[in-house]
Amino acid sequence: MKTRHFFGKFAFVIAILLVLAACSNTGSSTSSTSKPSAGNTPQQTDWPTKNIELIVPFAAGGVSDILARSFAEAAKGIINQTITIKNVGGGSGTVGNYELVKAKPDGYTWLWAASGHISSALHVTPAQYKKDDFTIVNKVGDMVVTAVVPKDSPFKTLQDLIVYAKEHPGEVTVGNPGEGTVVAMLATMLEDSAGIKLQHVPFQGSGTLLPAVLGKHVMVGFMNVPEIRGQVEAGDLRALAVMSEKRVDLLPNVPTSTEQGVKGVTGGAGHFIIIPNNVPGDVVRKIDELTKAVYESDKFKQLMNQAGYQLGYKTGADAKTEVDAWYVTTGEIYKKLGQIK
After folding, report:
1. What is the pLDDT of residue 311?
2. Are the C-beta atoms of 58 and 64 separated by less than 8 Å?
3. 3-state SS class at 221
4. Regions of the chain short of the pLDDT cut 70
5. How far is Cα of residue 226 from the mean position of the Cα atoms in its chain?
6. CATH, domain range 144-267
7. pLDDT tens digit string along 249-272?
């Protein structure tokens, strides 16, 4: 029953969204209706004049799904059309991303993207698109990654894991939420930086990885901080390190990888709003304007704060620079390790 803790800190968000879904759910999609309001709403043009579909390229109930639904909820009063969430899982996010690439370029199909399936995953996961086959409107923010182990694991610190892995090459099983994801890439970067050999075990998302770590089916799990906060606080899991330069507020007592002498193993799963290529420029600018207004709203900030999410808006140009740099960095590491497919 320990898995009932999963995303426990998101319970209030889920409750709100399930009520909305009960009223409007059809098939595999749910929707949130946004109504215009006075005040800080950006000036409207003729666009949008119909509902907007927001694709989540992962199964319902995961982090990306919850964040996207929180966005749709906070958009009420800012975006004057219905935002429909459509879950299209598979291929570490690449299946849903391909559906976005094929969509009509009219601005009414968006995708809640993560760094992996629009960048690093393209090195190791077969996909029917390339990294420039879509347009990045802007960046929403990031989630910090952590390494966790069962509560009775012999590993107390990240250095304990490294020392053991050096003495037992290839024996340490490390679970990740999917091949090519940023989370999986950070485990690979640890392998490269520390000079160790790990046995990587990809899962179909964090929902299947978490019980595997709790059940000791893998020795270590690499996951986003909010996904395991409840289990760490309950004492069911031990966090060895957060993969960041600074400690995070959700787990203030967990040291960073840098503090433990591991250099260059920092990063998080960035999230972006992307659309098909060839959407008219004035529509792209309006999408950026409206989504940024949602990010800056008190409602969205509150939801993201309680979810442990680090907001960090970037323009489309700056976001693309970040994604392209991550693609180059991860490509070099995958090539060095002989993992390029």
Report:
1. 92
2. yes
3. strand
4. 1-45, 341
5. 11
6. 3.40.190.10
7. 889 999 999 999 999 898 788 999
